[in-house]
């Protein structure tokens, strides 16, 4: 009994010992020192944390991505961009409407009436020219102007005239619109010489142009491909549209386009086509079907 009593008393005394003025076994000044210790301790931790983040942020640029390895060389994209990279339609049943709608939507940004504002756009010539230098990324030029790209340059694939409103799909001569994906501060370099690229692509080599060339993917399909025509500022991507300064500095930027028209793909045949761009700093990757090239299957049924 007595042990129990003294135990109770011990417990209470432990919480508040009025003799020694101790709370939970420590005096006020001891608690105060512990409190101060932890304030300083966590203060330092927070300081180190904020300091390293700030130092990290200082090394980042608002304008240029620090790490670009994931997107390294440019990808190609095209419109229409069907599932499984397979265009298949019937002329008679007019089943090409989804493709035509995709191109119409894609080309809207290239309507010349959206490119009127002189403060945002400028003319960069109607033939391939050298790179347009708009100052270094980190300089104080502010917003950069974008080169106009007039949809009408895509001629038969522009979809501006009544006869072309279906982009050739209705005649079995479909158009494909192709662009190189944007990469901040990237200057694609054209092939050093005609000899560095495959023979069939050489006619598309021009000064100040990244040539694009499409051909049959399988050798045995050669006779089914028919003639191909390229529209734009040439059969490729003209250099005056590069470099791109990024979303913040170059908000109105338009990528140059190339339209590819397939004039006589054999009807009822699954035609496999490969399109490739050629340049000194353009590579291809087995695993990435869109890096510097793309494959597409086109089946046109009457
Ligand atoms: C490459 O060859 C094509 C014809 O095969 C020619 O039109 C073009 O001018 C040549 N380009 C260069 C840079 O030699
Ligand atoms: C289209 O290709 C076929 C062979 O697939 C050929 O017989 C025909 O003459 C070609 N048409 C034109 C206009 O070149």
TrEMBL record:
The chain crosses the membrane at residues 35-60. InterPro entries: Na/K_ATPase_sub_beta, Na/K_ATPase_sub_beta_sf. Keywords: Cell membrane, Disulfide bond, Glycoprotein, Ion transport, Membrane, Potassium, Potassium transport, Signal-anchor, Sodium, Sodium transport, Sodium/potassium transport, Transmembrane, Transmembrane helix, Transport. Its main location: membrane. It is a single-pass type II membrane protein. It is found in: Cell membrane; Membrane. One of its GO terms (biological process) is intracellular sodium ion homeostasis. One of its GO terms (cellular component) is sodium:potassium-exchanging ATPase complex. GO terms for molecular function: ATPase activator activity. Coiled coil: none annotated. This is the non-catalytic component of the active enzyme, which catalyzes the hydrolysis of ATP coupled with the exchange of Na(+) and K(+) ions across the plasma membrane. The beta subunit regulates, through assembly of alpha/beta heterodimers, the number of sodium pumps transported to the plasma membrane. Belongs to the X(+)/potassium ATPases subunit beta family. PANTHER family: SODIUM/POTASSIUM-DEPENDENT ATPASE BETA SUBUNIT, SODIUM_POTASSIUM-TRANSPORTING ATPASE SUBUNIT BETA-1. The sodium/potassium-transporting ATPase is composed of a catalytic alpha subunit, an auxiliary non-catalytic beta subunit and an additional regulatory subunit. This is Sodium/potassium-transporting ATPase subunit beta. The lineage of its organism: Eukaryota, Metazoa, Chordata, Craniata, Vertebrata. The gene is LOC109079281.
């Amino acid at each position: 009994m007595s042990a129990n009593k003294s135990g109770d008393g011990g417990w209470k005394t432990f919480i508040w010992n009025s003799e020694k003025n101790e709370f939970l076994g420590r005096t006020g000044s001891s608690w105060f020192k512990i409190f101060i210790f932890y304030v300083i301790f966590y203060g330092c931790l927070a300081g180190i944390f904020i300091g390293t983040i700030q130092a990290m942020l200082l090394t980042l640029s608002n304008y240029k991505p620090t790490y670009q390895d994931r997107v390294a060389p440019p990808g190609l994209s095209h419109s229409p961009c069907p599932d499984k990279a397979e265009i298949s339609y019937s002329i008679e049943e007019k089943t090409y409407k989804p493709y035509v709608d995709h191109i119409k939507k894609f080309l809207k940004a290239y309507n010349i009436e959206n490119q009127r504002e002189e403060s945002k756009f400028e003319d960069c010539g109607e033939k391939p020219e050298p790179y347009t230098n708009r100052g270094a990324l980190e300089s104080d030029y502010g917003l950069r102007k974008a080169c106009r790209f007039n949809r009408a340059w895509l001629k038969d694939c522009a979809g501006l005239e009544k006869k072309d409103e279906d982009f050739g799909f209705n005649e079995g001569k479909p158009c494909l619109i192709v662009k190189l994906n944007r990469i901040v501060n990237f200057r694609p370099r054209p092939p050093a010489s005609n000899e560095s690229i495959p023979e069939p692509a050489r006619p598309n080599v021009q000064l100040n142009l990244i040539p694009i060339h499409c051909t049959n993917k399988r050798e045995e399909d050669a006779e089914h491909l028919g003639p191909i025509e390229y529209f734009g500022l040439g059969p490729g991507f003209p250099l005056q549209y590069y470099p791109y300064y990024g979303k913040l500095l170059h908000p109105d930027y338009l990528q140059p386009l190339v339209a590819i028209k397939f004039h006589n793909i054999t009807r009822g045949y699954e035609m496999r086509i490969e399109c490739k761009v050629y340049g000194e700093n353009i590579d291809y990757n087995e695993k990435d079907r869109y890096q510097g090239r793309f494959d597409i299957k086109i089946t046109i049924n009457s």
